[in-house]
Amino acid sequence: MVMIILGVIIGGLFPLFDRTRAPRPQAAAPATVPATATAVETARPTARPTVTPLALPTLAKKPDPMTIVVPTAGINTNIVQVYLNGVSWDVSRLGYNAGHLQGTAEFGAKGNFVLAGHVEMADGRPGVFASLNEIGVGDPLVLGKGKSTRRYIVRAVTTVEPDDLSVLYPTTTDQLTLITCGDYDFWQNVYRERLVVIADRAT
Fold first, then answer.
1. Which helix (H) or strand (E) covers residue 196, if one does?
2. Which CATH superfamily is domain 66-201 in?
3. What are the structural domain ranges in the chain?
4. Longest C-alpha distance within the chain, in Å?
5. Residue 107 CB burial class (10 angstroms; 0-12, 13-18, ≥19)
6. Which residues contact 169 (CB under 8 A, 6 or more apart)?
7. Looking at 7-139, which runs of residues are DSSP E strands?
8. CB neighbours of residue 94 within 10 Å
């Protein structure tokens, strides 16, 4: 008898407990309403996810390749950027390319556009500027970038001391300067001078 009374009391408390609890959030209605749904269920708004398309990442455009052509010296090579390393320009990775020295004029701008190249590779093979000494005054040089070309005429071929940076200074005119090592001292394993070719923009 006691068990029956307790069952009745507990059974009556469950509905009361349910009323005091916070209502549970309603689950989103399905996209399609079943045929057996009531009119109230049919009127319930359907939650649909909003999809925002993600923008595709934009790839940085590669700079147009640059080249230098010197017909009289048989030079036709690519130009790469050579950066300052805090002391000088790092030409250790030039290989068979000519290197545009950071800080000198950019292609298409007035100023002194300076290119450096190896006269000899570490293994003894000739470098890209090995034949720079064959260039003479009046010879043409062609600088290219993408589809654009700029033609220069050699004004001077000279040598300077290894620590003479005056040939790299900015200019107010459109100038192209090529520089490489010269006068190798076998006994001391050093180059005693720099060979420099200076050319002006052809009009």
1. strand 190-201
2. Sortase (2.40.260.10)
3. 66-201
4. 125
5. middle
6. 112
7. 66-70, 75-82, 98-101, 111-116
8. 19
pLDDT tens digits along 18-36: 444 444 545 555 455 444 5
**How many residues appear in the chain?**
203
Closest of 98, 90, 38, 94 to residue 68, by C-alpha: 98
Low-confidence spans in the chain with pLDDT less than 70: 1-59
The two three-digit tokens of residue 34, written as one number: 């079943």
Cβ-Cβ contacts under 8 Å for 109 (sequence gap 6 or more): none
Rg of the chain, C-alpha, whole Å: 39
Q: How far is CA 56 from the centre of its chain?
A: 19
Tell me the per-residue pLDDT of 93-104, one tens digit each, with 9 for 90 and over. Answer: 899 999 999 999
Q: How many CB atoms lie within 10 A of CB 132?
A: 22
Q: Can you tell me which residue has the tokens 């180059």?
A: 191
Cβ(119)–Cβ(132) under 8 Å? yes
Instruction: Indicate the helix (H) or strand (E) that contains 9.
Output: helix 2-20
